[in-house]
Specification:
8 helices; 14% helix; eight-stranded antiparallel beta sheet; Rossmann fold; alpha+beta; single chain; 34% strand; 691 residues; Jelly Rolls; 4 domains
Length: 691
Amino acid sequence: MKLKVFIFLSFLCSNITCQKNLEWLDKNENESVWNELLGSWEFNNNTISPNLSKNGANLQYVLIRSGMEADTKWSEISVDFQINADIAQYSVGFVLNTKDSCDFGIISINRLSNLSSLKLGLWKYGKYRPWLNINLKKGIQTKKKYRLSIYPTTKKEEWRPWTITLTEDGSNEILLEQAIQNDIPMFGRGIVGLYSKESQVTFQNFNITQSSTIKQNLRLAPLFSDGMVIQRNKVVPVWGLAAPEKNVQLEFNNQSFNTKSGISGHWRINLSPMEASLSLKMKVVSGRDSIFINNVAIGEVWLASGQSNMNMKVWQSDMSTRSKELAPDIGLRMFLQPQWASNEPVFDSGGKWENAESGNVDVWSAVAYSFALQLREKLKVPIGIIGSYWGGTAAESWLPREELGTDPITKPILDQFYSAQEALELGQQIRNIRPWNVPDQRHAPGYLFNGMIYPHIPYAINGVIWYQGESNAKRAKQYETLFPMLIRSWRKEWDLPEMNFLFVQLPGYDGKQSGSNIESAWPQLRDAQRLTLQKVDNTGMAVTIDLGEVTNIHPYKKRELGERLARLALHDIYGMEDIVRSGPLYESVTFNDKSAIVSFSDCAMSLQIRESNILQGFEIAGSNQQFFPALAEINSNGKSVRVWSDKINKPVAVRYAWKNFPDKANLINSSGLPASPFRTDEWPLPTDKNR
């Protein structure tokens, strides 16, 4: 099979009038569960077909499932279809995440010039935007039945969360089996239905597995569900929706509260601070509607977010061995947030709590699991991690979009987005240097904040652990502004100006991906992270320069990485001062004659050299900005290093571990933790103007 991802956008034009206010069909039992969105459809016993005689000028047929809403959750859909005539061109399948007749996703089996394929794309602004095209291993036969299915991926080794299959009836031959990401938000949420651009097709046996269809006005935000962990010793907001201006009662842990929903139906109750506990129940009632939440714990809650290295699962890392050594633990839990990008903030994009006895630890975030284990062991209270991450994503996707317009360094990201959106609305073709900034897909600014962070605000948490930066390395200088902006924006959204934010400094890597082919891009990104640590209060940085792999952007060692994040939390937040929090961090530099004296914090008992008598990794430069490898020695105070080179008579700048993969750098503290890379200069670098 040939897989093509279409980054630039192309279109097929059609004139469509959007239909948003629709009347439900009620002719018979079969029709009553469907709604005609585009074209006319014919119902005959157990089959459904487009009705050409009544279709008029429509070039597409769309039939959507009644009773579904924009935030309806589903896990599987399938349908049988049959092409009834030998036609040269057709397109049949599903519509997904349908907003109206001018905005829906399409996944379809297609024939064009004797070539059969599966296509995925978006219909919006009267145009079709292709995203994915996969050729089938053989063509579709006329008057033969096939089944098209979408369901959660079950193969542990496959990192893409959804799978599409096309199966031939009778032989059960699989013509296509393709795992896929939810890049354009389609899978698992929203209104679904049938799609065709040809009348000579028959659909049969449509099946959908969705969450409860019981209709009630009372709803809770997604984190408030069975197995949840509530933050101890802090005020805990509980919020949701109810019928407008109705009373809402909440009972929990011997507390009882009453409030009234607003005109829009929104309501919020603040629970008083509580001590750690297990096996509690919560009850929420409004009118005739009630919700019961079981197996509630009170303990420590952290949000884990970022890109692929935070997403990397236990089974893919050295945490796999560790997990097999541990007994089940109902006091250690993780909320698994589905991947969902959105142009607008959403109330609920799904997810569920799991605990460490559920057998699902293998697919948890390895970094977050390692971090949580340390907190569980040291604090002896329930630990809850909210896992919201997505591989290959840039920081601008994870913060409120309009924040980007508040600084001239980040405003170009926003400008590119709105320029692309305007072009799409005008029916123009997009040609963007960085097509990530076009709307309606996961890389667009603000989309992951809206879909994967906003639903959890203002849930009471003690802090955030963050592992991201690879996708911003080409714009490392911009990250000096962008990353602090993200931290401050989350604190503002949570109304927690001092919210703890711990993050991972990128490890060593030189595999020529994600900007590592640009001179100094990865070292500069690490330095942007270090500067964020200096500029933004209540942050902590886990130095991991020694945990990387030269050609593997997803290093295997996640246990030590998570433990280094936990060191920061246990020391800085939980007051365990006997724990060494970090490796050495650059503090200051002075220049004396032919040498430089570099001072460090976080030296533990003393600075040391790892596995050698020769200190390596330092470079020194004069006013001509040319760096040379330097000699270095630890001073007798154990907190500073003297750096010099015979080639530099009057040094003005020092760098340490300033390489993509600085495997020779060996400065550590007495606890064996590595020193952070740094530079003392502010000289221009290749990424400085990249926006």
